[in-house]
Amino acid sequence: FQGELQHRRVKRFYARTNKIRTARQIARLSERDRALRKDSPDHRRQRGKYSKAQLDVRVSMHQRAHEIPSITPDMHHWISHSRHSPVNLRYWLRDNNSDPALKNFTAKLKDHILGRLRNPNQALDGTEFSSEDRQQVIIQNNRIYRHHTLRVNYTTYDIRRDQDCMNPRNHADVMTLSHDVDPATGISCSGHPFAYARLLDIYHVPIFYCIPGQEPVPRSIEVLFVRHYRLDSSWKCGFQQKRLPRVHFRPADDPSAFGFVDPDEVIRGAHIIPAFAHGQTEHQLNHQTFKHLNHIDTDWRYYYVNWYVYFTHTLSFGPNDTTSRLGSLIATYICATEDAGSVTTSSKLTTLQFLTQSR
User: Fold this and answer.
1) What value, to the nearest 5°, has the Cα angle with vertex 143 and ends 140 and 146?
2) What is the pLDDT along the chain (359 residues), one digit of tens a residue?
3) Which is nearest to 79 in space by CA: 165, 18, 159?
């Protein structure tokens, strides 16, 4: 039986090779696996470094620290509320006062929270409040808490449930409904029903909401700190033009370049790829605070929104099956808008008009 297991082990290593000089690659993988097992808790217990009781406690603590609970399909998203990574705003902002991403950070954060508390059923439009209004939001101990992962439930194009897992390091782009929609006509000024942003950090903020004449109400607010993309209006895109939508980062001196997003407004993750032919932008931002992120040092001039990865089924239809393709896309976009936190009839109308014009 042990020999059969060893045979399966070699087969498993073979699948991880590039099928060229496989013996050498399998030997390297086997040596690497042996080294990792040598440093495992079970191996250390065999060497007598820890007692069994000590190892059981260490393994249990490690599992609890990295355990991600499952979320039910009726939940829109999940963000941890642990307090293992606190951020003291006073010292953090003082130490990174030259970072353009953190300009007016506290004021923007309180404006975002106030907008959500006062208008919980409306999408935020970037309203700025006065200093007196901001005093109604008191951040407990002047601390916010950082998290690594955002998980979002969404509906796929074939009306099935799926989940995206976003984090600021390597899956950082998200999509939301666009806010430039005319409520009367349901038409987006940009002609595109979605907006895109790149995650820089994920927080939950414990606050006291102080309404005059009432007792302070403790709340816990989940926020996403993002860098916004702007749709390139000079670029014609769609099925008729056979082009992907093109976006670029907003200039650093734009007050809305960095901001906060309600996780309830996130539809799902976005697959945004650099337009390599246009090169990198000449104005690189010096992100001292977010230098640990893999993507932060390479700002490209333009990016493409690769919607093919969302609608793979479009290429499975022939060129004469336009009606079925359009119907499937409409179903996809309607499901996406149903998943968003703030859905209006005008938003759905915008989606239908966009798809009809793109056709």
Assistant:
1) 130
2) 456 677 788 888 888 899 888 999 988 888 888 887 776 665 555 555 555 555 555 555 545 544 566 778 888 999 988 898 999 999 999 988 888 889 999 999 999 999 999 888 776 667 788 989 999 999 999 999 999 999 999 887 777 888 899 998 888 999 988 877 666 665 667 677 888 999 999 999 999 999 888 889 899 999 999 999 988 888 888 778 888 889 999 888 888 889 999 999 999 999 999 999 888 876 666 555 665 565 555 688 899 998 766 654 343 333 333 333 444 444 444 444 444 444 444 444 444 444 444 44
3) 165
CA dihedral of residues 299, 340, 86, 115 (deg, nearest 10): 100
Q: Give me 182's structure tokens.
A: 């005319």
What length does the chain have? 359
Show the tokens assigned to 287: 């992100």
Q: Which amino acid is at 151?
A: R
Q: Report d(CA 144, CA 222) in Å as an integer.
A: 10
